[in-house]
Amino acid sequence: MLTKLEVDGFKNLLNFEVELGPFTCIAGVNGTGKSNIFDVIQFLSLLADRSLIEAAQEVRGVHGERLGDPRDLFWNGYSRSDHKMSFAAEMIVPGEVEDDFGRPAKPSITFLRYELEIGYIPPAGIEKIGRLSLLAENLRHIKLGDAPEKLGFRHNAGQFRKAVLHGRRAGTAFISTAIDADGQPIISIHQDGGSRGQPKPAAASRAPATVVSTVTSSDDPTVLAARREMQSWRRLALEPSALRTADRYVDPRQMDPTGRHLAGTLFRIAYTDGDFERVYARVASRLADLSGIDVRELRVEQDDVRELFTVQLVESGGLALPARSLSEGTLRFLALCVLLEDPSVEGLLCMEEPENGIHPANLNAMVQLVQDLAVDPYEAPGVDNPFRQVIVNTHSPAVVQLADPQDLLFAEVDIRRAPDGTMARALSVRPLVDTWRDNRDTRTRAVSKADILPYLTTPPGAQLTLEIA
């Protein structure tokens, strides 16, 4: 679980800070940069797996290219000479993970703070766009005694906090950065044994990837747990074409961020549960929350001749409809219903505008569904309460009115001082007054209901009734 995110110098995020709970809804008008929050989370997740340049190229570019330009990640493109962006993520990591060889590993402590600083080196020789450079990387523990203050969102200390926070660490960081005599950063990994283990240093200047991404074995269990946590941060971009595609028997049975492998995933969930009818009935019951959807039964058809899985919806009249016949909004809702049933899906899920394609009469069902996807912080995480975190963004007044005020943040553009001393437009997110985030960050003013009237009132000129001549 990502509990706090700090960013400086990434796109329009300058001296940016946000605290996150199990479920967060970020609302704001188009153009404020809400999606940049998802971009930075995606970037950090990619950096746990890939090289600096590969991660940068996969993040959404500003010009819509298939591969992003790494220079576009910096707050003002590449107009300055001293490019630098820094990140800090406070997180609760899994209590047990597996390394790349299938061996179990337990971190020394599950509450961590990860810090990263990345620079830009202009092109030289054969290079034409330059490259990213690793300037600093640190991973430290957060004292469990500080958890009541650190975790500001409402939760049950005995059932939730004590279940996810455990372990101990004294003194040495797990990853640290020092500057050598030549002024170059040297990054060291410190073993979980603390002073008993010798650090493993490496020069950062030519490092192609972060140190976290290189840890693959159980020899460094806490660093590995941090890596696994960041790898679990996903950005859902459910695509109708992917959701409509049948699954081959040889395909993966884990739904990807586009929604591909929906049928195979639902079959695997039902098979693992051991009661196909019960699982299919739960998904069908949730899908029936959508008004206008006539659902008697939902199942996964197995075509042994073509070796295909397909999702079939059976209406009350007996008509069977394949997934490809459903509307885009219904397909997205169905995909989230399947995710809700999948206890193997943990980590952070980011969703852009979940209201897209949903009839206004069904917004309440959609908002309730995305809220239910997140872990219940009043119960211990487990099979019936997967340790999932959800962040959505929206510009819909209806979604804002349906969300719990404790979960709301409002995106605005502020004028802030940029790294070069100039004043720049930067994203800020503000909580509602008297909610748990209020007064926790003195730099950010909370908003009142009067400030968000556009989200609470009918726009001028709107027709509340239709008169037919």
UniProtKB/TrEMBL annotation:
Tree of life domain: Bacteria
Keyword field: DNA damage, SOS response
InterPro entries noted in UniProt: ATPase_AAA_core, P-loop_NTPase
ATPase AAA-type core domain segment(s): 287-400
Protein name as it appears in the record: Chromosome partition protein Smc
Source organism phylogeny: Bacteria, Bacillati, Actinomycetota, Actinomycetes, Streptosporangiales
Protein encoded by which gene: smc7
